[in-house]
Amino acid sequence: MTNAYLSYAAKRLAQAFVVVLLAYVFTFMVVSILPGDPITNVLRDPQNGFTEDEIRQIIAAQGLDQPIPVQLWTSLSHFVAGDFGRSMRSNRPVATLIAEVLPSTLILASAAFAIALLLAVTIGYGTQFLPKRFGQGLLRGFPSLFLSVPNFVIGLVLIHLFGFQLGLFRVIAPDSFWATFFAAVALGVPVSARIAEVLIANLDKESEQEYASVARGRGLTRMRLFARHLLKPSSLPVITVTALAIGELLGGSLITETVFGRTGIGSLVQRSVSTQDLPVLQAVVSLAAVVFVLVNLIADLVYPLLDPRVKLIGGPRARPTTADDGAVATSVAATS
Amino acid sequence: MTLASFSAASRVTAISRLTALRVPPTVAFAFAVIAIVIAWSLAPGLFTNHSPVVGVTAEKLLSPSAAHWFGTDHLGRDLYTRVVYGTASSVTSALIAVVIAAVAGGLIGLLAGFLGGWVDIVLARLVDVLLAIPNFLLAVIVVTAIGFDTTNAAIATGVSAVAVFARVMRSEVIKTRQAIFVEAAFLMGGSRWHILLRHVLPNASRSVLPLAVLQFGLSILVIASLAFLGYGDPPPASDWGLLISIGKDYLKWPWLVYAPAFVTIATVLSVNRISRWLRKTD
Q1: Domain residues for B238?
Q2: Which SUPFAM superfamilies match (chain B) (predicted)?
């Protein structure tokens, strides 16, 4: 760890913090400034049966009669202190609501992530070693196909085939092993396509390198050649795209949880959308931004440690895919 | 130089341009699919004799046959007809989304790249924020704020894609700005606006076109997802996502899901293929 690295890390950390704060402000603006008045719509909904007096009380209690900058400041300072406010529907703390459903979504998302990685690497392996005309073309088409299928369709097809036809799981028991597994597959497939696209491009590039020919010439097994000489150098850009794909897992969980009838962050969002429970929505969006920014921050920080060629000057992330020899020569990476 | 030799030369370039533009069979097929989809959305009545709204109750939940290509739904409506009539809304909304994303994102990227300095810094942070919120979540929030219907879902989808266009446009503008011909235009006394409109914009927008086409396919998916969750127009509208959503309650009659899903996938695949081809021929 040198000074260059530490100051780079500090700079990226500060940037990440600013982005999270701005994401909060942005969501706040979207929900409070755009036309339409979700809050009084909910309160004045005759089904809720609030009198005008009660409505005024609730609005005052939530601080909604204050001017918008004041509201923003109050809620932003609460957010920084870790207080997400209370749900407008159930009047329970938003943090509790989220904590209740978080484990289920974490299980789903991490399983989906593992499946996505495995699938991407398998596809990548196939594109390097399957016969050119037969299997390879098919495999190369997979990412594009995966990205063209709405992920609720993948979920419905899996439910239809494995749930209804084969009876592997039952939709009314969404937390059983197989139900979770297939939900994770549905969520992971589009993510795997994004990773596979980048992986294949880099594997192709690496396999043309001279050291790859040398490794082949030395008679290494396919597995060893793939793992040590192709996959390892290709993994850097894959880290970048993987970090970006995390956001997709969060967004996709909304649909997957609905399709598979799971309780989780996604279903919480859906419920909050239909009841226009803004504090909950705002908290979830901000948390998603925090997760996304953190994961990308970690990727950015790991990058220069894995690849000493990565430049540390300036903010933008260096990409080895495009980095030519000139960039390597001029790099001021940690002079360890 | 005689007129004859001039025309001969131009014929040669025309031929070589045609060979350069030679369309691979899969791309031709993709264009055919898109042509059908466009025809469906312009004149749905030409492609079917059934009504998309009124069904024959006696003929409910029939499996696909010669009379009903995609079978019939729980109200005895011909599913193929519903898909055809739902095309216009599905396609138009994706188009709205792309136009919003490309215009807003393009403008942000253009300003950031061309003006540089603090404008660039401020806009870059805005783009970072838009990127930090998962696309689909962002679309859901926006559609919640402005109300549930298909047009709003399209607007929300467009907003969620602004960042991508801004990024690409900015990097293209910066690349073009450093080109020698732009420098030359400056030296010849071209005003900033002239250079922006005459040189930078046309060059930078070249790589925005494949992106826009790709985004069109993605928008179809996102809007279908929003419709699936019930954030679009309610039935009897027959957006593709909504059809699949209705079908999911009748999984015993799987064509109610598979048929509209197949049309959606075929459309998006074709669009993606065309986008890839555009990127390669550029």
Answers
A1: 23-48+72-280
A2: MetI-like
